[in-house]
Amino acid sequence: MSKVLFYLLDVGHAFAEGSMEIRLWGVDSEGKTVLVRDRSFSPWFYLICRSKSEAEKALNLINSSKTRFHKIRSTELVTKKLFGREVTALKIACQDHESAAEYSESLQKLPQVSGIAENDVRPTEQYLLQRGLLPCTWIEAETEFAKEERLVAGGSFRLTGDIRPSGDRARPALKIMSFAVLYSASGRNRLILVSARTSEGVSVQFEAEEDEGSIISGFVDFVHDNDPDMVVGYQSNSVDWPLLMRRARDLRLRLDVDRAGGEPHPSIHGHISIAGRANVDLFEIARDQAEPKVKTLENVVEHLGIARHALRVEDCEIDQAWKDPEKRKRLRDYAAQKAELILKLSEAFLDYAIQMSSLTGLPLDQVPAATAGFKVDAYLIREAYKLGELIPQRVERPYYPYRGGLVLAPKPGLHENIAVLDFTSMYPNLMLLYNVSPDTLLQAGDREADAYEIPGLGYRFRKSPEGMYTIVLNNLLTARSAIKAKIDSLRRDSAEKRVLEAQEQAVKTIANAVYGYAGWIGARWYVREVAESTAALGRNTIETTLNEARNLQLELTYGDTDSIFVENDAKKVEKLEATIRERLKMEIKMDKVYARVLFTEAKKRYAGLLEDGSVELVGLEAVRGDWSEIAKKVQEKVVEIVLREKSPKKALEYVRNIVDSIHRKDVEYSQFVIWKTLAKPLEAYEVRAPHVEAARELIRDGWRLTLGDKIGYVITSTPGKLYQKAKPYIKATVKDIDAEYYAANQVIPAAFRILEILGVSEDQLPKPTAQRRDRSVVEFMEHKP
DNA sequence: GCGGCGCTACTACCT
DNA sequence: ACAGGTAGTAGCGCCGCG
Known about the structure:
The protein is α+β, with helices and mostly antiparallel strands. It has 21 helices and 27 strands. The strands form seven sheets. A six-stranded antiparallel β-sheet has the order 20-21-17-22-23-24. Strands 1-2-3-9-8 form a five-stranded mixed β-barrel.
């Protein structure tokens, strides 16, 4: 017998010699690959019964049909909780997940059975729950050496005894491989070039000489030679892997890049799974971040300061460049750069992904692919298991909307010295304060003297014991404070500090998402009343705060959900904070002070000048991804002139100059591009829209588009509706640009939004001239058949 | 045939 | 597919207009 200590990277299950086997893949302290196989696991499900006697009846029935249910390993009558209520249930554990699925299907039809639970929790997830293990943590296992396998450098072991967390979390040195695929993007989608790079500094490229086969076989060999623990790409789950898999299939080649002699395969959350290696698509992490708006690899690394002036090649140039021997070198450099940037980006994202993995229990490769809702789901599953709560089935249900946060109409105009006060973690703290949780909600008929009643809604939540959300949020908020304190105690930037910051970010993400999760119909613990009550408590909180501010004669300019904007009167603000603390048991704190702030008539749109001289724009065109750069730049500049110099005149002058340069087309082409997300399949659109028409044109040219792709288009001088004027930006030049559109529908509205607040009238801004109108009429006539 | 009007679709933002 | 609240542009159908 030998003890194996390893860092868990991937979990899988398989059938071996007729029985189900859980496979734990990891690395040991020397960085060698380890595989631990466990054949002792029995996946389970629960049958919920109406009463104990009914449960006994069902149990007898099942136990007397041993032949029919011969793959049941054990049955047990248990008392559990479901949504905080005691239930009697039968725990049925089976030989493997297939028999579990089959039996759960038939047994839930028994008349004694009123419900079912945990049948839709994946076997690997059940395994980790039962053994108390988390991915991206160290585990010790009592095993015996099974065999030396070609694909498992550190050896393959069979679990013979205990398996448990070792308590250590320090990340070992992981072997990482990045890769990027270049392909002929339009039409046939043939492989042109694959570039790969390892964290040990090995770099390689595979090119199509005669055929693509050499690329695939070369790549597969490279993966095995370097044996990475983690494979990183950019859009690799949506583009690179599917393309490699498709071409390998077409060419009848095996893409056996995993550690078990198998091929990549689609898994949950739409990601590609590679047994024994963590396959991570860094685009999926970038996707969750607000900036940059257009998330190309080059934009993302530049935004993060990882690289500057990254080499850029448009997808549509690749074919041509490859055919031209002169340009081939540039293409090779571009592919090599991609692999390098992806590797660097993985360093920037890895700490966060690891922390999220060990917090939620999701394997590392699933973390980036899982949406926020599923991350919370995974986290709650772990906490519920520890609390002895059954994990409810995910069920389809109807959607009922409810009222959300309160938004005040701003006082339009320019204001000086305005303080922004906001509640720290308002929703989580309200849920804590009122024990708002799926398992504390009382039903209409419940008699419970000691309960919180939600004003205006009448829902009641019992005061004790603490609900699941209460416990969880308490843990998360307490952990976050502790992590923050630790970060503050570390003065200099260090690896330890960065890990803590990543951990804090992960904890914060989950804590902030719990409220939204509660109101999400896809949630296992969906209870609309929980979300609805929290939002109602939030409205009351902000209402009370507003009233107290009025009592103190503290002038209000704006407020949204958990924040209020007031005159910066230190004494009154302090009084307000104290009153709120006392009356509501909530913390409202001054977040920042605007030396000057400008509100439009609209909610959720304003611009402020901070005391350090920096300018912030909120909600305005300039911070939106779907306006042209030129319009955004002009609006930002106007805001700066207005806030810093209070000179609408100067701003006006600036706008006039820019509009002139637009008409002269003395503006860089990229400034005209408008980006919009393709949010649904083309055929699902009910109206014609510019970005949809541009997307259709790209498809006609043979491009593959994915849901969620950003479509870049420009408005050309083609006559007609806007959607007829739109052209994919790669297919037009500055000559095609409709200057009048950009002046009249982009730059001027964005600038006027700010200037009108300062009393500038519309006719002080440039307007379409007769001459310009005439020219478009001429063009229109010329285009007539 | 066309402009004005009101409604809807669509996207992306704020907290 | 974490929530609701909100702004803004453009498309589209309808109406009136001798």
